[in-house]
Design brief:
Strand content: 5-15%
Number of helices: 8
Largest sheet: 4 strands, antiparallel
Structural class: alpha+beta
Shape: globular
Number of strands: 4
Distance between the termini: 37 Å
Radius of gyration: 17 Å
Oligomer: single chain
Mean pLDDT: 94
Strand order of the largest sheet: 3-2-1-4
Order of helices and strands: HHHHHEHEEEHH
Helix content: 40-55%
Length: 213
């Protein structure tokens, strides 16, 4: 069985705020002469603008209706999609140290962060495809690969997505409702107040770059 094939009836079980996106993507596939597939859905979500949605109380709804997200919102939305499709998703947190030598960070930030360890906590998913566990990471639009950010350009369903960090430790989130609180608590464990400020500056810089890519 093609690991990317869809059971279209299951898409109808998604909340109503998914419908405009699904309708638009289905129309695009029809125009292109292609079939709507799991790859098509995940790549469309990968390529939504990298930026935080305005918080209106439902992270998945905000991500889909405002059509933007960072690693948290995008993977919450992908979790909902994969769960509806019967792929048994699991949500993970991964901690890693930010590397300010990367070219997408500013010189000013590099100077501020000199000799400081700054940690981030990344969200990603695993799911079951044909009985095999696969990593799903749709954090960065493919357009940001040109500046060195990690992106997945090709995917058949028979391999993992590129994981967008060199993780030092991973933790599974048992209840998705707890994910934000657990992420924030882990960030506070890992970082000083100054490091948390630098982390936020780094995210703001990436979001600004993404608007220009």
């Amino acid at each position: 069985m093609d690991p990317l094939s869809l059971m279209h009836g299951r898409l109808s079980s998604l909340p109503v705020y998914w419908r405009p996106f699904l309708k638009r993507l289905t129309a695009e596939c029809k125009t292109d002469g292609t079939a709507l597939s799991l790859r098509t859905l995940l790549f469309a979500m990968r390529d939504m603008p990298y930026g935080r949605p305005i918080d209106r109380g439902d992270k998945v709804r905000d991500c889909i209706t405002q059509w933007r997200g960072t690693c948290s919102a995008k993977h919450f939305a992908a979790y909902e999609l994969l769960e509806a499709l019967g792929h048994s998703p699991k949500l993970w947190l991964a901690c890693y140290q930010l590397d300010f030598s990367n070219p997408y960070y500013s010189d000013a930030l590099r100077i501020q962060a000199k000799n400081q360890k700054v940690y981030d906590v990344h969200n990603f998913l695993t799911c079951q495809l044909n009985g095999t566990t696969r990593i799903i990471d749709i954090t960065f639009p493919v357009s940001l690969g040109s500046i060195g950010l990690p992106v997945t350009e090709q995917w058949t369903g028979n391999e993992n997505f590129v994981l967008c960090c060199d993780c030092e430790e991973t933790r599974q989130i048992k209840r998705i409702e707890d994910a934000d609180d657990k992420k924030q608590a882990w960030l506070r464990e890992l970082n000083t107040h100054e490091a948390l400020v630098l982390r936020e500056t780094a995210i703001q810089e990436l979001m600004q770059i993404a608007t220009q890519a």
